[in-house]
Amino acid sequence: MKAVIVEKTDATPAYHNAKIVDVPKPEALENGHALIEINAVSLNHRELWIRKGLYPGIVFGSVMGADGVGRIADLKGASSKHKVGDRVVIMPSVGWIKDPRGPEESYQILGGGRVHGLFSEYFAVGQDNIFHAPDHLTDIEAAALPLAGLTAYRVVFTKGQVSKGHNVLITGIGGGVALMALAFCVAAGANVYVTSSDEAKIEKAVRLGAKGGVNYRDDKWGANLQKLTGGQLFDSVLDGAGGDGIRVYAKILRTGGIIAQYGMTVKPQVDFPMAAVLKNIELRGSTMGSRLEFEQMLEFVTKHQVKPVVSQVWQGLESVEEAFETMKSHAQFGKLVLTIRSSSKL
What parts of the sequence cross the membrane (predicted)? Predict the structure, then answer.
């Protein structure tokens, strides 16, 4: 079968290959496993960081990709939940079952490391890690959901404790996680505000349900946010940027407010000020989520008919390099998807 692997290069700065190769199709399934015929996959920034050599635990020769949707082609062992032909999404990681604090076992995200990923024509997986794809989603939308949806669900509800009527700030709108967080917060009845350096992205976020947004390149962006809320403080900040913004968050958050940090793409550290301590503000790290949270996320998506935002779609694994170039340019608003085989749900 065709698959995309990470291949080491000696380029400086590092940029490893995403190489299309022939690899053996999984044949002898372990008991309790399923063989998935992959219909579509989507990219995450994690794959770009792997190619740049900035992600820990890279295993060269490993199949890339954590997100995908497909049909069950074969099952080994009895299953009360699944049957051949079912359309499913795959849990994008292994080793974390239900503990809300963190993984119980050796935790691995699919692709590019010790556990092979989904950028392939078939994928073998334990039946406990596959779930029925929400019926209202096309294959393209379902492929865009797993990693971003799980990460966003945990940061919004488990860590951010967002609920109806809350004022929530989502920074750096445009990426997959931030957009899923926006959708979840809006569905929960929160008042959502966003930041971006791109006015067009702010306008798109407003069309998706945000109350408003500000350009973080403006020195007075914190004060501008306060004008938008009429002086009301924020209950939570959902941040994927890191860096110096935390000093502004300390000013605009209520006493006991929460900063839920799910990434640090701008600067890999934060400077937590004493002003935040005095206001009892909490800084909570959040990475991915458990299998239980993944199941809860899918239930929430189905109940509220949430749809991931898809920016661009290509046909075939051979288009993976073009998709990576789009991601590198920061041009996307939403997820980048590759379709692998045709389906009635595309």
Answer: 168-194
Confidence band for 17, pLDDT divided at 50, 70 and 90: very high
- Tokens 């996307």, residue? 332
Which pairing describes strands 130-132 and 87-90: parallel, antiparallel, or unpaired?
A: antiparallel
Rounded-to-integer distance, Cα 340 and Cα 142, Å: 13
Predicted TM-score (pTM) of the model is 0.95
For the stretch 132-179, pLDDT in tens is 999 999 999 999 999 999 999 999 999 999 999 999 999 999 989 999
Distance between CA atoms of residues 257 and 252, nearest Å = 9
Domains in the chain (CATH in brackets) are: 2-149+289-339 (3.90.180.10), 161-285 (3.90.180.10)
Q: Residues 174, 202: contact at Cβ < 8 Å?
A: no
